[in-house]
Amino acid sequence: MTSKLKLLVATSAVTAAMLGANPAFAAGTTAGDAITNNVTVNYQVGGVAQTAETDSDTFTVDRKLDLTVSEANGAAQSVTPGQTAGAPNPAFLTYTVTNDSNDVVDFELTAAQQTTGTATPFSGTDDFDVTGLLIFVESGATPGYQPAEDTATFIDELAEDANATVYVVGDIPLGLATGDAAGITLTAAIKQGDTGGSLGGDYTVNATNTEDGTVNAANIDNVFVNSSASDTDNFVISAANVSVVKSSAVLWDPVNGSSNPKSIPGAVIEYCIAVTNATGSATATSVNISDDISTLDLSFYATAPAAGPATIPAANGVRSALACDGTGTNADASGLGESGGVISGNLGDVAAGATETLLFRATVD
Question: Which domains does the chain have, with CATH numbers?
């Protein structure tokens, strides 16, 4: 028997039709799916149509393993010195892991600090490390990172073409300045996804293995496009830059009154505590002042002497920006108080570029 391979052209007496439900190449088709291609050959002998010849071929789609990792925000995540991984204001970065494989797979997740001095993706160079790095996967119960809900540490059984949100959380050290940055790289590695509830094992390239290491009946080969992928995001510090200046002025004494008064016993001294937050800084919140005069030869001045200056009311001891020259107007204060010789006051929030002042008076013993 002689076997010949012929190229069929339009003038041939024999025609062939390839008839199949699926195309011969199916990008994205799920691993393990069978693709069957049917062929029918019609021909004649002496001008008489003969019984058509048919055949088919079936192959199993192999497993393409691929993924994408990307940071999710397109900008650095602003944090403050001392911010932690815990509630109510956790410090975290957000990433997206996409399963570009044609099968359900697991993903192992790891996070690494950038090297000091390395350029971060969005703001300057890396100059500090986050402590206590942890990785959690979005549960879907409540959108956004929720420490009590998002507790999974690997991606389990992610469907093909699906994605998962991953959070890298940690503690931000104290003592950092505005603009300091820390880059964190998240890496996801593909693992077998045959069994839910636990991280699968490794796939072997071009091997027909399942999670238990045995050959599978479907004869599916494993082909890595990428076995792992990573992306980097960074924290950037937004800190308050607070400074304080304390000054005093003699307002009155029992000999000279308010005309060129001296700091003699019985004199009234006004103290001004000015708190400034530098321009470009984060707002300083809950700014509280405590000034202890209990061990000094001073007494808190709550009642004006008969010929002395007016008393500063206890509920109005805060003045607005740069009032320490005595020309400012008293602001609505949350309270100037004294207990046991300790003067206290709450300036509330001090915005970037602002100065807030606390005034109180004392008499010289």
Answer: 15-61 (no CATH), 65-237 (2.60.40.10), 242-364 (2.60.40)
